[in-house]
Design brief:
The complex is a heterodimer of chains A (146) and B (427).
Chain A (H helix, E strand, L loop, with lengths): L4 E8 L8 H13 L3 H22 L1 E8 L3 E8 L7 H4 L9 H4 L8 H7 L3 E7 L3 E9 L7
Antiparallel strand pairs in A: 1-2, 2-3, 3-5, 4-5
Helix pairs in contact in A: 1-2, 2-5
Chain B lengths: L7 E3 L9 H5 L5 E4 L2 E4 L9 H5 L5 E3 L12 E6 L13 H10 L4 E2 L2 H16 L8 E2 L4 H10 L13 H16 L8 E7 L2 H9 L10 E4 H11 L14 H5 L5 H4 L6 E5 L1 H12 L8 E5 L15 H11 L40 H17 L13 H11 L7 H13 L5
Parallel strand pairs in B: 5-6, 5-8, 7-11, 8-9, 10-11
Antiparallel strand pairs in B: 1-4, 2-3
Helix pairs in contact in B: 3-8, 4-6, 13-14
The chains are: A alpha+beta (146), B alpha/beta (427).
Protein backbone atom coordinates (compact mmCIF):
# COMPACT_ATOMS: atom_id res chain seq x y z
CA UNK A 1 0.00 0.00 0.00
CA UNK A 2 1.41 3.31 -1.03
CA UNK A 3 1.66 6.02 1.54
CA UNK A 4 -0.86 8.82 1.43
CA UNK A 5 0.33 11.79 -0.59
CA UNK A 6 -0.29 15.11 1.04
CA UNK A 7 -0.32 18.51 -0.61
CA UNK A 8 -0.73 21.74 1.26
CA UNK A 9 -1.84 25.05 -0.24
CA UNK A 10 -2.30 28.48 1.26
CA UNK A 11 -5.21 30.20 -0.42
CA UNK A 12 -4.51 33.92 -0.59
CA UNK A 13 -7.60 35.88 0.33
CA UNK A 14 -6.23 39.22 -0.78
CA UNK A 15 -5.66 38.25 -4.35
CA UNK A 16 -8.88 37.36 -6.02
CA UNK A 17 -7.27 36.77 -9.40
CA UNK A 18 -5.28 33.83 -8.06
CA UNK A 19 -8.35 32.10 -6.61
CA UNK A 20 -8.70 28.67 -8.18
CA UNK A 21 -4.96 28.24 -8.73
CA UNK A 22 -4.61 25.45 -6.17
CA UNK A 23 -7.34 23.33 -7.73
CA UNK A 24 -5.67 23.67 -11.14
CA UNK A 25 -2.43 22.48 -9.53
CA UNK A 26 -4.19 19.51 -7.91
CA UNK A 27 -5.80 18.64 -11.22
CA UNK A 28 -2.35 18.51 -12.83
CA UNK A 29 -1.02 16.21 -10.12
CA UNK A 30 -4.00 13.84 -10.32
CA UNK A 31 -3.50 13.65 -14.07
CA UNK A 32 0.16 12.76 -13.59
CA UNK A 33 -0.86 10.07 -11.14
CA UNK A 34 -3.17 8.62 -13.75
CA UNK A 35 -6.58 9.02 -12.14
CA UNK A 36 -9.53 8.81 -14.51
CA UNK A 37 -11.03 11.90 -16.08
CA UNK A 38 -14.28 11.79 -14.12
CA UNK A 39 -12.56 11.58 -10.73
CA UNK A 40 -10.25 14.44 -11.64
CA UNK A 41 -13.16 16.57 -12.74
CA UNK A 42 -15.17 15.95 -9.58
CA UNK A 43 -12.23 16.72 -7.33
CA UNK A 44 -11.24 19.84 -9.20
CA UNK A 45 -14.74 21.31 -9.35
CA UNK A 46 -15.40 20.66 -5.65
CA UNK A 47 -12.04 22.05 -4.63
CA UNK A 48 -12.42 25.05 -6.90
CA UNK A 49 -15.75 25.95 -5.30
CA UNK A 50 -14.20 25.57 -1.87
CA UNK A 51 -11.28 27.80 -2.77
CA UNK A 52 -13.57 30.49 -4.14
CA UNK A 53 -15.72 30.30 -1.01
CA UNK A 54 -12.72 30.86 1.22
CA UNK A 55 -11.60 33.86 -0.81
CA UNK A 56 -15.06 35.41 -1.04
CA UNK A 57 -16.22 34.86 2.54
CA UNK A 58 -13.19 34.32 4.72
CA UNK A 59 -10.21 36.23 3.28
CA UNK A 60 -8.53 33.00 2.35
CA UNK A 61 -7.46 29.93 4.25
CA UNK A 62 -5.67 26.68 3.64
CA UNK A 63 -6.34 23.60 1.59
CA UNK A 64 -4.89 20.20 2.43
CA UNK A 65 -5.26 17.47 -0.12
CA UNK A 66 -4.71 13.82 0.80
CA UNK A 67 -4.43 11.36 -2.04
CA UNK A 68 -4.92 7.66 -1.40
CA UNK A 69 -5.44 5.03 -4.03
CA UNK A 70 -9.13 4.74 -3.33
CA UNK A 71 -10.00 8.13 -1.89
CA UNK A 72 -9.11 11.78 -2.28
CA UNK A 73 -9.76 13.95 0.75
CA UNK A 74 -9.66 17.72 0.78
CA UNK A 75 -9.77 19.78 3.96
CA UNK A 76 -10.49 23.45 3.44
CA UNK A 77 -10.00 25.47 6.59
CA UNK A 78 -10.50 29.20 7.10
CA UNK A 79 -10.65 31.71 9.94
CA UNK A 80 -13.65 33.53 8.55
CA UNK A 81 -16.96 34.57 10.12
CA UNK A 82 -18.44 31.06 10.20
CA UNK A 83 -21.77 29.95 8.73
CA UNK A 84 -24.80 30.92 10.89
CA UNK A 85 -27.26 28.52 9.25
CA UNK A 86 -25.74 25.59 7.40
CA UNK A 87 -29.01 24.26 5.96
CA UNK A 88 -29.75 27.68 4.50
CA UNK A 89 -26.24 27.91 3.08
CA UNK A 90 -26.69 24.52 1.46
CA UNK A 91 -29.76 25.69 -0.46
CA UNK A 92 -29.15 26.19 -4.15
CA UNK A 93 -29.25 29.86 -5.04
CA UNK A 94 -28.73 31.14 -1.49
CA UNK A 95 -25.75 33.44 -1.34
CA UNK A 96 -24.32 36.09 0.94
CA UNK A 97 -21.63 37.14 -1.51
CA UNK A 98 -21.21 40.93 -1.77
CA UNK A 99 -22.18 42.80 -4.93
CA UNK A 100 -18.64 43.35 -6.15
CA UNK A 101 -18.10 39.57 -6.15
CA UNK A 102 -21.38 38.99 -7.97
CA UNK A 103 -20.29 41.44 -10.60
CA UNK A 104 -17.49 38.99 -11.39
CA UNK A 105 -19.95 36.22 -12.02
CA UNK A 106 -19.64 34.52 -8.65
CA UNK A 107 -22.20 34.41 -5.88
CA UNK A 108 -24.76 32.28 -7.69
CA UNK A 109 -25.35 30.35 -4.49
CA UNK A 110 -24.07 27.11 -5.99
CA UNK A 111 -20.73 26.80 -4.18
CA UNK A 112 -21.62 24.48 -1.30
CA UNK A 113 -24.37 22.64 -3.22
CA UNK A 114 -21.87 21.88 -6.02
CA UNK A 115 -19.29 20.69 -3.52
CA UNK A 116 -21.83 18.25 -2.16
CA UNK A 117 -23.02 17.21 -5.58
CA UNK A 118 -19.57 16.37 -6.91
CA UNK A 119 -18.25 14.56 -3.86
CA UNK A 120 -19.13 11.39 -1.98
CA UNK A 121 -18.86 12.83 1.51
CA UNK A 122 -18.94 16.32 2.85
CA UNK A 123 -18.65 17.57 6.41
CA UNK A 124 -18.93 21.19 7.55
CA UNK A 125 -17.62 22.29 10.94
CA UNK A 126 -18.20 25.92 11.69
CA UNK A 127 -17.89 28.21 14.70
CA UNK A 128 -19.29 31.71 14.41
CA UNK A 129 -16.55 34.29 14.52
CA UNK A 130 -13.84 31.62 14.47
CA UNK A 131 -13.97 29.93 11.12
CA UNK A 132 -15.14 27.04 9.01
CA UNK A 133 -13.60 23.72 8.04
CA UNK A 134 -15.10 21.80 5.15
CA UNK A 135 -13.95 18.25 4.55
CA UNK A 136 -14.84 16.59 1.26
CA UNK A 137 -14.07 13.11 0.01
CA UNK A 138 -14.18 11.64 -3.45
CA UNK A 139 -13.89 7.85 -3.71
CA UNK A 140 -11.99 6.84 -6.77
CA UNK A 141 -13.71 3.49 -7.31
CA UNK A 142 -17.39 2.97 -6.79
CA UNK A 143 -19.55 5.00 -4.41
CA UNK A 144 -20.12 7.38 -7.29
CA UNK A 145 -23.26 9.34 -6.71
CA UNK A 146 -23.48 10.90 -10.15
CA UNK B 1 1.25 4.54 -31.53
CA UNK B 2 2.42 6.41 -34.59
CA UNK B 3 4.96 9.12 -33.91
CA UNK B 4 3.43 12.57 -34.32
CA UNK B 5 5.24 14.55 -37.00
CA UNK B 6 6.10 18.07 -35.96
CA UNK B 7 6.87 21.22 -37.88
CA UNK B 8 9.26 22.93 -35.53
CA UNK B 9 12.94 22.18 -35.92
CA UNK B 10 16.22 23.44 -34.58
CA UNK B 11 19.28 24.89 -36.25
CA UNK B 12 22.05 23.42 -34.07
CA UNK B 13 24.58 26.00 -35.24
CA UNK B 14 22.41 28.89 -34.12
CA UNK B 15 21.07 27.46 -30.85
CA UNK B 16 23.06 28.76 -27.89
CA UNK B 17 21.28 26.57 -25.36
CA UNK B 18 19.84 29.65 -23.66
CA UNK B 19 16.61 29.38 -21.69
CA UNK B 20 14.29 31.63 -23.69
CA UNK B 21 12.29 28.90 -25.41
CA UNK B 22 12.64 26.57 -22.45
CA UNK B 23 10.88 28.98 -20.13
CA UNK B 24 8.09 29.90 -22.51
CA UNK B 25 7.03 26.52 -23.80
CA UNK B 26 3.42 26.20 -22.57
CA UNK B 27 3.56 22.41 -22.33
CA UNK B 28 7.10 22.19 -20.88
CA UNK B 29 8.11 20.15 -23.91
CA UNK B 30 11.63 21.61 -24.17
CA UNK B 31 14.80 20.63 -22.33
CA UNK B 32 18.33 21.88 -22.89
CA UNK B 33 20.63 18.91 -23.47
CA UNK B 34 24.30 19.07 -24.51
CA UNK B 35 24.05 22.79 -25.01
CA UNK B 36 20.97 22.98 -27.19
CA UNK B 37 17.20 22.69 -27.08
CA UNK B 38 15.52 19.32 -27.49
CA UNK B 39 11.76 19.04 -28.04
CA UNK B 40 9.74 16.16 -26.60
CA UNK B 41 7.49 15.36 -29.52
CA UNK B 42 4.88 13.59 -27.39
CA UNK B 43 4.11 16.83 -25.61
CA UNK B 44 4.76 19.49 -28.28
CA UNK B 45 1.60 21.02 -29.77
CA UNK B 46 3.32 23.01 -32.57
CA UNK B 47 2.06 26.29 -31.19
CA UNK B 48 5.22 28.02 -32.41
CA UNK B 49 5.83 29.88 -29.16
CA UNK B 50 9.52 28.77 -29.15
CA UNK B 51 9.98 30.17 -32.65
CA UNK B 52 8.49 33.44 -31.48
CA UNK B 53 10.79 33.56 -28.42
CA UNK B 54 14.13 32.50 -29.88
CA UNK B 55 16.44 35.54 -30.12
CA UNK B 56 18.86 33.69 -32.42
CA UNK B 57 16.38 32.44 -35.03
CA UNK B 58 17.51 28.92 -34.21
CA UNK B 59 13.97 27.57 -34.06
CA UNK B 60 12.40 27.13 -37.43
CA UNK B 61 9.02 26.14 -38.74
CA UNK B 62 9.21 23.49 -41.44
CA UNK B 63 7.05 24.19 -44.43
CA UNK B 64 7.01 22.89 -47.96
CA UNK B 65 8.74 25.25 -50.34
CA UNK B 66 6.89 26.60 -53.33
CA UNK B 67 9.72 25.35 -55.58
CA UNK B 68 9.23 21.79 -54.33
CA UNK B 69 5.71 21.53 -55.69
CA UNK B 70 5.59 19.56 -58.91
CA UNK B 71 5.00 22.21 -61.59
CA UNK B 72 3.38 19.64 -63.87
CA UNK B 73 0.50 19.44 -61.44
CA UNK B 74 -2.52 21.72 -61.45
CA UNK B 75 -1.57 23.86 -58.48
CA UNK B 76 -4.33 25.49 -56.47
CA UNK B 77 -3.40 28.10 -53.88
CA UNK B 78 -5.48 28.20 -50.69
CA UNK B 79 -4.75 31.56 -49.04
CA UNK B 80 -5.77 31.78 -45.36
CA UNK B 81 -7.82 34.92 -44.66
CA UNK B 82 -4.97 36.25 -42.50
CA UNK B 83 -2.86 36.48 -45.68
CA UNK B 84 -4.80 39.53 -46.90
CA UNK B 85 -3.81 41.50 -43.83
CA UNK B 86 -0.10 41.30 -44.70
CA UNK B 87 -0.08 43.84 -47.53
CA UNK B 88 0.46 47.60 -47.33
CA UNK B 89 -2.06 49.80 -49.17
CA UNK B 90 -4.15 46.92 -50.37
CA UNK B 91 -7.71 47.96 -51.08
CA UNK B 92 -8.94 44.88 -52.86
CA UNK B 93 -8.32 41.22 -52.16
CA UNK B 94 -8.50 40.52 -55.88
CA UNK B 95 -4.95 41.85 -56.34
CA UNK B 96 -3.67 39.16 -53.99
CA UNK B 97 -5.59 36.42 -55.78
CA UNK B 98 -4.34 37.68 -59.14
CA UNK B 99 -0.80 37.80 -57.77
CA UNK B 100 -1.02 34.15 -56.80
CA UNK B 101 -1.96 33.30 -60.38
CA UNK B 102 0.84 35.50 -61.67
CA UNK B 103 3.51 33.72 -59.67
CA UNK B 104 2.45 30.42 -61.20
CA UNK B 105 -0.54 28.95 -59.43
CA UNK B 106 -3.14 27.58 -61.83
CA UNK B 107 -6.06 28.46 -59.62
CA UNK B 108 -6.97 29.99 -56.27
CA UNK B 109 -9.54 28.97 -53.69
CA UNK B 110 -10.03 31.22 -50.69
CA UNK B 111 -10.15 29.46 -47.32
CA UNK B 112 -12.45 32.30 -46.25
CA UNK B 113 -15.13 30.80 -48.52
CA UNK B 114 -14.98 27.51 -46.67
CA UNK B 115 -14.97 29.40 -43.38
CA UNK B 116 -18.32 30.93 -44.29
CA UNK B 117 -19.77 27.50 -44.93
CA UNK B 118 -18.38 26.19 -41.63
CA UNK B 119 -19.98 29.20 -39.93
CA UNK B 120 -23.37 28.25 -41.42
CA UNK B 121 -23.10 24.68 -40.15
CA UNK B 122 -21.82 25.86 -36.79
CA UNK B 123 -24.93 28.01 -36.37
CA UNK B 124 -27.01 24.96 -37.14
CA UNK B 125 -25.00 22.89 -34.65
CA UNK B 126 -25.48 25.53 -31.95
CA UNK B 127 -29.24 25.16 -32.27
CA UNK B 128 -29.13 21.39 -31.62
CA UNK B 129 -30.67 20.07 -28.43
CA UNK B 130 -28.17 17.67 -26.95
CA UNK B 131 -24.84 19.44 -27.16
CA UNK B 132 -22.35 20.09 -24.37
CA UNK B 133 -21.95 23.78 -23.64
CA UNK B 134 -19.73 25.56 -24.11
CA UNK B 135 -18.95 24.41 -27.63
CA UNK B 136 -15.25 24.89 -28.39
CA UNK B 137 -14.02 25.70 -31.91
CA UNK B 138 -11.95 23.17 -33.83
CA UNK B 139 -10.15 25.53 -36.20
CA UNK B 140 -6.83 25.90 -34.38
CA UNK B 141 -4.94 22.59 -34.54
CA UNK B 142 -2.60 23.58 -31.69
CA UNK B 143 -5.59 24.06 -29.39
CA UNK B 144 -7.28 20.83 -30.47
CA UNK B 145 -4.06 18.88 -29.84
CA UNK B 146 -3.67 20.55 -26.46
CA UNK B 147 -7.20 19.51 -25.49
CA UNK B 148 -6.64 15.89 -26.49
CA UNK B 149 -3.45 15.77 -24.43
CA UNK B 150 -4.56 17.62 -21.34
CA UNK B 151 -8.29 18.22 -21.07
CA UNK B 152 -10.08 14.87 -21.11
CA UNK B 153 -13.39 16.31 -20.12
CA UNK B 154 -13.39 18.92 -22.84
CA UNK B 155 -12.85 16.59 -25.80
CA UNK B 156 -16.62 16.20 -26.08
CA UNK B 157 -17.04 19.99 -26.15
CA UNK B 158 -14.98 20.50 -29.29
CA UNK B 159 -17.32 21.02 -32.23
CA UNK B 160 -17.05 17.82 -34.31
CA UNK B 161 -16.64 19.80 -37.50
CA UNK B 162 -13.64 19.85 -39.81
CA UNK B 163 -11.75 23.16 -39.97
CA UNK B 164 -12.19 25.44 -43.03
CA UNK B 165 -8.82 24.43 -44.50
CA UNK B 166 -10.10 20.86 -44.96
CA UNK B 167 -13.38 21.84 -46.56
CA UNK B 168 -11.55 24.33 -48.78
CA UNK B 169 -9.18 21.61 -49.98
CA UNK B 170 -12.04 19.31 -50.82
CA UNK B 171 -14.17 21.86 -52.67
CA UNK B 172 -11.15 23.29 -54.52
CA UNK B 173 -10.29 19.86 -55.94
CA UNK B 174 -13.90 19.16 -56.91
CA UNK B 175 -14.33 22.53 -58.61
CA UNK B 176 -11.07 22.09 -60.53
CA UNK B 177 -12.20 18.72 -61.84
CA UNK B 178 -15.56 20.17 -62.83
CA UNK B 179 -13.81 22.94 -64.75
CA UNK B 180 -11.19 20.64 -66.26
CA UNK B 181 -12.70 17.19 -66.65
CA UNK B 182 -9.40 15.88 -68.03
CA UNK B 183 -7.79 16.26 -64.58
CA UNK B 184 -7.57 13.31 -62.24
CA UNK B 185 -7.65 14.03 -58.49
CA UNK B 186 -3.96 13.15 -58.21
CA UNK B 187 -3.02 15.66 -60.93
CA UNK B 188 -4.03 18.43 -58.58
CA UNK B 189 -1.82 19.92 -55.86
CA UNK B 190 -3.71 21.75 -53.13
CA UNK B 191 -1.35 24.26 -51.53
CA UNK B 192 -2.32 25.97 -48.29
CA UNK B 193 -0.65 29.31 -47.57
CA UNK B 194 -0.25 29.07 -43.83
CA UNK B 195 0.29 31.55 -41.02
CA UNK B 196 1.59 28.87 -38.64
CA UNK B 197 3.46 25.59 -38.25
CA UNK B 198 0.51 23.97 -36.48
CA UNK B 199 -1.40 23.79 -39.76
CA UNK B 200 1.63 22.20 -41.43
CA UNK B 201 1.68 19.50 -38.75
CA UNK B 202 -2.05 19.07 -39.06
CA UNK B 203 -1.71 18.32 -42.78
CA UNK B 204 1.36 16.06 -42.37
CA UNK B 205 -0.30 13.92 -39.73
CA UNK B 206 -3.83 13.92 -41.04
CA UNK B 207 -6.65 14.27 -38.58
CA UNK B 208 -8.37 11.47 -36.64
CA UNK B 209 -6.86 8.91 -38.97
CA UNK B 210 -7.95 10.61 -42.18
CA UNK B 211 -5.55 11.99 -44.77
CA UNK B 212 -5.89 15.73 -45.33
CA UNK B 213 -7.35 17.13 -48.55
CA UNK B 214 -4.44 19.55 -48.57
CA UNK B 215 -1.23 18.33 -50.23
CA UNK B 216 1.29 21.05 -49.42
CA UNK B 217 1.62 23.72 -46.76
CA UNK B 218 3.78 26.69 -47.62
CA UNK B 219 4.70 29.54 -45.36
CA UNK B 220 2.87 32.83 -45.66
CA UNK B 221 6.10 34.82 -45.51
CA UNK B 222 7.61 32.71 -48.33
CA UNK B 223 4.69 33.48 -50.67
CA UNK B 224 4.43 37.08 -49.48
CA UNK B 225 7.90 37.95 -50.73
CA UNK B 226 7.26 36.27 -54.08
CA UNK B 227 3.99 38.13 -54.40
CA UNK B 228 5.07 41.69 -53.67
CA UNK B 229 7.36 41.46 -56.70
CA UNK B 230 4.46 40.81 -59.08
CA UNK B 231 1.63 42.77 -57.45
CA UNK B 232 1.93 45.92 -59.53
CA UNK B 233 -1.72 46.87 -59.29
CA UNK B 234 -1.55 48.66 -62.67
CA UNK B 235 -3.81 46.17 -64.41
CA UNK B 236 -7.31 45.23 -63.33
CA UNK B 237 -7.15 41.79 -61.72
CA UNK B 238 -9.04 39.05 -63.48
CA UNK B 239 -9.45 36.99 -60.33
CA UNK B 240 -12.43 37.84 -58.15
CA UNK B 241 -12.78 37.23 -54.46
CA UNK B 242 -15.81 35.21 -53.46
CA UNK B 243 -15.70 35.69 -49.72
CA UNK B 244 -17.51 38.11 -47.48
CA UNK B 245 -17.02 39.84 -44.15
CA UNK B 246 -17.54 36.69 -42.15
CA UNK B 247 -14.91 34.65 -43.95
CA UNK B 248 -12.36 37.43 -43.64
CA UNK B 249 -13.15 37.84 -39.94
CA UNK B 250 -11.88 34.36 -39.15
CA UNK B 251 -8.35 35.77 -39.47
CA UNK B 252 -8.40 37.41 -36.08
CA UNK B 253 -9.64 36.53 -32.66
CA UNK B 254 -13.39 36.79 -32.12
CA UNK B 255 -14.19 36.67 -35.82
CA UNK B 256 -15.36 33.09 -35.92
CA UNK B 257 -17.41 33.48 -32.72
CA UNK B 258 -19.07 36.80 -33.57
CA UNK B 259 -20.32 35.36 -36.87
CA UNK B 260 -22.57 32.98 -34.94
CA UNK B 261 -24.92 35.80 -33.90
CA UNK B 262 -24.94 34.42 -30.37
CA UNK B 263 -23.45 36.79 -27.84
CA UNK B 264 -22.83 34.15 -25.18
CA UNK B 265 -19.31 33.57 -26.41
CA UNK B 266 -15.77 34.03 -25.26
CA UNK B 267 -12.76 34.45 -27.55
CA UNK B 268 -9.28 33.96 -26.12
CA UNK B 269 -5.98 34.10 -27.93
CA UNK B 270 -2.36 33.43 -27.04
CA UNK B 271 -1.56 29.93 -25.86
CA UNK B 272 -1.13 30.78 -22.17
CA UNK B 273 -4.48 32.56 -22.06
CA UNK B 274 -6.02 29.61 -23.85
CA UNK B 275 -4.73 27.20 -21.20
CA UNK B 276 -6.12 29.39 -18.40
CA UNK B 277 -9.52 29.49 -20.06
CA UNK B 278 -9.58 25.72 -20.63
CA UNK B 279 -8.65 25.11 -17.00
CA UNK B 280 -11.53 27.29 -15.88
CA UNK B 281 -14.03 25.77 -18.29
CA UNK B 282 -13.06 22.30 -17.13
CA UNK B 283 -13.78 23.42 -13.59
CA UNK B 284 -17.26 24.43 -14.73
CA UNK B 285 -16.67 28.06 -14.08
CA UNK B 286 -18.48 29.64 -17.05
CA UNK B 287 -21.96 28.11 -17.05
CA UNK B 288 -23.37 30.98 -19.09
CA UNK B 289 -21.13 30.43 -22.09
CA UNK B 290 -22.33 28.73 -25.24
CA UNK B 291 -19.36 29.11 -27.56
CA UNK B 292 -15.65 29.40 -26.95
CA UNK B 293 -13.26 30.45 -29.68
CA UNK B 294 -9.65 29.67 -28.89
CA UNK B 295 -6.60 30.52 -30.96
CA UNK B 296 -3.05 29.65 -29.94
CA UNK B 297 -1.50 32.75 -31.51
CA UNK B 298 -1.79 36.27 -30.08
CA UNK B 299 -4.54 38.09 -31.94
CA UNK B 300 -5.65 34.92 -33.71
CA UNK B 301 -4.25 33.58 -37.00
CA UNK B 302 -2.87 37.03 -37.90
CA UNK B 303 -0.43 36.42 -35.02
CA UNK B 304 1.00 33.22 -36.50
CA UNK B 305 4.79 32.94 -36.60
CA UNK B 306 4.85 32.59 -40.39
CA UNK B 307 3.16 35.93 -40.97
CA UNK B 308 5.18 39.04 -41.78
CA UNK B 309 3.04 41.82 -40.35
CA UNK B 310 2.34 42.78 -36.75
CA UNK B 311 -0.95 41.05 -35.87
CA UNK B 312 -2.69 44.22 -34.73
CA UNK B 313 -1.79 46.06 -37.91
CA UNK B 314 -2.95 43.08 -39.96
CA UNK B 315 -6.24 43.12 -38.11
CA UNK B 316 -6.80 46.80 -38.85
CA UNK B 317 -6.07 46.21 -42.52
CA UNK B 318 -8.55 43.36 -42.65
CA UNK B 319 -11.19 45.60 -41.09
CA UNK B 320 -10.66 48.08 -43.91
CA UNK B 321 -10.60 45.37 -46.58
CA UNK B 322 -13.86 43.79 -45.53
CA UNK B 323 -15.66 47.05 -45.06
CA UNK B 324 -17.72 47.13 -48.22
CA UNK B 325 -18.06 43.39 -48.64
CA UNK B 326 -21.31 41.49 -48.38
CA UNK B 327 -21.75 39.87 -44.96
CA UNK B 328 -21.27 36.44 -46.48
CA UNK B 329 -20.90 35.15 -50.02
CA UNK B 330 -21.09 31.46 -49.24
CA UNK B 331 -24.39 30.30 -47.94
CA UNK B 332 -26.02 26.91 -47.89
CA UNK B 333 -28.51 25.90 -50.53
CA UNK B 334 -32.15 26.35 -49.50
CA UNK B 335 -32.59 22.60 -49.71
CA UNK B 336 -29.76 22.11 -47.21
CA UNK B 337 -31.79 22.85 -44.12
CA UNK B 338 -30.93 20.06 -41.73
CA UNK B 339 -28.16 17.63 -40.91
CA UNK B 340 -24.55 17.87 -42.05
CA UNK B 341 -22.69 16.56 -45.09
CA UNK B 342 -20.40 13.72 -44.14
CA UNK B 343 -17.25 15.55 -45.22
CA UNK B 344 -17.76 18.33 -42.72
CA UNK B 345 -18.06 16.12 -39.64
CA UNK B 346 -15.18 14.54 -37.73
CA UNK B 347 -14.70 10.97 -39.01
CA UNK B 348 -14.66 9.78 -35.38
CA UNK B 349 -14.77 11.14 -31.84
CA UNK B 350 -11.93 13.23 -30.55
CA UNK B 351 -9.96 10.96 -28.28
CA UNK B 352 -8.19 11.84 -25.05
CA UNK B 353 -4.58 10.68 -25.25
CA UNK B 354 -2.99 11.60 -21.94
CA UNK B 355 0.70 12.33 -21.68
CA UNK B 356 2.85 12.74 -18.63
CA UNK B 357 1.34 9.95 -16.58
CA UNK B 358 4.03 8.84 -14.13
CA UNK B 359 3.20 5.16 -14.26
CA UNK B 360 0.41 2.82 -15.30
CA UNK B 361 0.35 1.43 -11.78
CA UNK B 362 -1.18 3.85 -9.31
CA UNK B 363 0.95 2.70 -6.35
CA UNK B 364 4.16 3.22 -8.32
CA UNK B 365 2.92 6.58 -9.61
CA UNK B 366 2.20 7.68 -6.04
CA UNK B 367 5.65 6.61 -4.86
CA UNK B 368 7.24 8.57 -7.68
CA UNK B 369 5.09 11.61 -6.95
CA UNK B 370 6.18 11.41 -3.32
CA UNK B 371 9.87 11.30 -4.32
CA UNK B 372 9.35 14.21 -6.69
CA UNK B 373 7.62 16.29 -4.02
CA UNK B 374 10.47 15.67 -1.55
CA UNK B 375 13.13 16.47 -4.09
CA UNK B 376 11.31 19.56 -5.39
CA UNK B 377 11.05 20.88 -1.83
CA UNK B 378 14.83 20.62 -1.43
CA UNK B 379 15.63 22.43 -4.69
CA UNK B 380 16.32 26.19 -4.67
CA UNK B 381 13.00 27.15 -6.38
CA UNK B 382 14.83 29.70 -8.52
CA UNK B 383 13.57 28.11 -11.72
CA UNK B 384 16.81 29.32 -13.30
CA UNK B 385 16.81 26.77 -16.08
CA UNK B 386 20.54 26.07 -15.85
CA UNK B 387 19.89 22.36 -15.37
CA UNK B 388 18.09 22.33 -18.70
CA UNK B 389 14.59 22.00 -17.26
CA UNK B 390 12.12 24.91 -17.26
CA UNK B 391 11.40 24.82 -13.52
CA UNK B 392 12.85 23.18 -10.39
CA UNK B 393 9.69 21.12 -10.23
CA UNK B 394 10.18 19.87 -13.82
CA UNK B 395 13.81 19.10 -12.94
CA UNK B 396 12.67 17.01 -9.96
CA UNK B 397 10.44 15.07 -12.35
CA UNK B 398 13.36 14.61 -14.75
CA UNK B 399 15.54 13.26 -11.93
CA UNK B 400 12.96 10.82 -10.58
CA UNK B 401 11.35 9.76 -13.83
CA UNK B 402 14.07 10.36 -16.39
CA UNK B 403 17.21 9.40 -14.49
CA UNK B 404 18.84 12.84 -14.67
CA UNK B 405 21.52 13.51 -12.10
CA UNK B 406 20.83 15.90 -9.24
CA UNK B 407 24.32 17.30 -9.89
CA UNK B 408 22.91 19.15 -12.91
CA UNK B 409 21.49 21.67 -10.44
CA UNK B 410 24.21 24.31 -10.15
CA UNK B 411 22.91 25.69 -6.85
CA UNK B 412 22.96 22.23 -5.30
CA UNK B 413 26.44 21.63 -6.74
CA UNK B 414 27.77 24.89 -5.36
CA UNK B 415 26.60 23.99 -1.89
CA UNK B 416 28.20 20.58 -2.20
CA UNK B 417 31.49 22.08 -3.34
CA UNK B 418 31.45 24.56 -0.46
CA UNK B 419 30.97 21.69 1.96
CA UNK B 420 33.80 19.75 0.34
CA UNK B 421 36.09 22.75 0.72
CA UNK B 422 35.07 23.30 4.35
CA UNK B 423 35.22 19.67 5.39
CA UNK B 424 37.61 17.96 3.00
CA UNK B 425 37.49 14.21 2.90
CA UNK B 426 34.02 13.85 4.40
CA UNK B 427 32.14 13.18 1.20
Amino acid sequence: MAETLRFHYEVDGNNFTSAGAASVEVKRKLRQLGFDAETIRRVSIAMYEGEINMVVHARGGSADVYVDKDCITIILADRGPGIPDISLAMQEGYSTAPDNIRALGFGAGMGLPNMKRYTDEMKIETVLGKGTTVTIKVYTNGANKL
Amino acid sequence: MKQYKHSVSLDLEKCKGCTNCLKRCPTEAIRIRDGHAVINSDVCIDCGECIRRCPYQAKKANFDRYEDIDAKKYRIALPAPSFYGQFVDLDDVDYVLQGLLDIGFDDVFEVARAAEIVTEYTRRYMSEQDISYPVINSACPAVVRLITLRFPYLCAHVIPMMPPIELAGKIAREEAIAKHPELKPEDIAIVFISPCPAKASYVKNGFLGEKSHVDYVVSMSDIYFKLIGVMKKNATPKATSQSGMIGMSWASTGGEASALFNDKYLAADGIENVIHVLDEIETGHFPMLQFVELNACPGGCVGGVATVENPYIARVRLQALRRYLPVSQNRLEKSDNEGYPEEILFPKDLEYRPVGKFDDDLTTAMQKMSEIEDLAASLPALDCGSCGAPTCRAFAEDVVLGGRSIDECIVYMRERIQKMVQYPGEE
